[in-house]
Design brief:
The chain is α+β, with helices and mostly antiparallel strands. Helix content is 29%, strand content 21%. The two termini are 15 Å apart.
């Protein structure tokens, strides 16, 4: 079976591409990366420096005509988490528009307008997606599942914490795979009991094994009309009905809470450190230490708003410095820069306390060393990239499992 052609949207600095290309089974035929609020397109510059400018688009995806996106087998991307509510256009009651700037609708548009639709989707988002927005928990994900269902896709999803599977960072993200009804996987999926697919037969469970679920599975149907689904889904403001694993096929959602199953071989924070080669400017000056200790410590204090209103503020303490014998905490976009912060990582080394280097942050996301190193790109910006990136190892394992499943099922259905 030859390589699958990939279209990579919201490419960032290329985490999806790295993971998929590492398997040897995928070939990126087109990519798009656009940072809306900045003049300098730093992530796109890094992407081009690593993978070359050919077939790479650095234009707002909302302004790229579908005709410019080449045909592909699999569409991938970590799209931004936004408000996915639905409205209709006045001219056309069936016309579906999300708010401008809500980039889910760009994926939707490409899938709608492509004559030859991609057979597979591989998408990623923050796990909050399953329970947003707060006044209608789960609505955004319900709208996505229903709209993908209407375009001919069955979907399976799982919230994966990379550290649960031996990777060096505790980073929880929801990954979902879509299978077009023309594929062998879709046919197998449709004939399998949802629980078996989720725990044993599905692509995600073969990449990331689970313990057998103890509790029952919940099932419900998604309303067909997207606008009324958007208006009324879970409007009694209860908990989100979407648990950390699930499937949606023919408008029916089946969801359960699964737990990871993994052996002993784990990577921890000490495994990624640059011992002895970290830059001097990462070390914390003695004078700054009290500020770091205050920010990382527990607090119960009275604070004042700008308007003079007093309120009680409290927060727990954080491990300081960070534990070296555990996977790291989640990297956030504000990880770079010298200023003391509650959320930046600080490690104790023989030479003193210091922040993490750009290379160490890359390693925590399983990127190659210096992947983001480029003239004109600051260390703070490199840290920002890693706060936005995904863990490459998760993509690689999922990509391998998907390819194997396609290969095996195509043989089965042909024979």
């Amino acid at each position: 079976m030859q390589q699958l052609k990939v279209c990579e949207l919201f490419a960032g600095v290329g985490g999806f591409r790295l993971g998929l290309e590492k398997t040897g089974h995928y070939n990126v035929v087109w990519s798009n990366q656009w940072e809306p609020s900045t003049k300098a397109q730093h992530a796109s510059l890094v992407y081009e420096a690593k993978f070359g400018p050919k077939n790479h688009s650095n234009v707002n995806i909302e302004e790229v005509p579908t005709s410019e996106v080449p045909d592909h087998d699999i569409l991938v991307g970590g799209f931004p988490c936004q408000d996915y509510s639905v409205a209709t256009t006045l001219k056309n009651s069936k016309g579906l528009i999300g708010k401008k700037g809500v980039l889910w609708w760009s994926i939707h548009r490409i899938l709608s307008e492509k004559k030859i639709k991609p057979k597979y989707l591989f998408l990623e988002n923050v796990d909050r997606l399953l329970k947003s927005p707060s006044n209608q928990r789960g609505r955004d994900f319900a709208v996505m599942l229903r709209s993908l269902n209407d375009l001919g896709y069955a979907v399976e999803w799982r919230v994966i914490n990379a550290a649960d599977y031996g990777m060096p960072q505790r980073r929880r993200r929801v990954f979902f795979l879509g299978y077009h009804k023309s594929t062998a996987i879709y046919k197998k999926f449709k004939s399998s009991p949802p629980k078996e697919w989720l725990l044993e037969q599905g692509v995600i469970s073969s990449a990331f094994p689970t313990q057998s679920a103890v509790q029952n599975m919940d099932s419900f149907f998604l309303e067909e009309n997207l606008v009324s689904l958007s208006d009324s889904f879970n409007s009694d403001k209860g908990l989100s009905p979407f648990l950390n694993s699930g499937v949606c096929i023919d408008g029916k959602v089946s969801t359960l809470k699964s737990s990871p199953s993994y052996g002993e071989n784990r990577t921890v924070l000490s495994d990624v450190l640059e011992n002895g080669s970290a830059s001097e400017n990462l070390f914390i000056p003695e004078g700054d230490l009290p500020k770091w200790q205050y920010l990382k410590g527990g607090k119960k204090e009275i604070r004042k708003t700008k308007a003079g209103f007093e309120y009680n503020y409290s927060e727990g303490s954080m491990v300081f410095p960070d534990a070296l014998d555990q996977p790291s905490r989640t990297i956030i976009t504000g990880e770079g820069g010298k200023s003391p912060s509650r959320f930046k990582h600080v490690v104790q080394t023989s030479a003193g306390l210091r922040r993490l280097s750009p290379v160490e942050l890359e390693r925590l996301n399983m990127f190659p060393d210096n992947h983001t190193k480029l003239d004109g790109i600051s260390d703070t910006k490199r840290a920002f990239f890693m706060g936005n990136a995904l863990v490459v190892g998760v993509v690689e394992q999922m990509g391998n499992a998907l390819f194997q499943k396609i290969k095996n099922l195509e043989k089965q259905f042909q024979s």
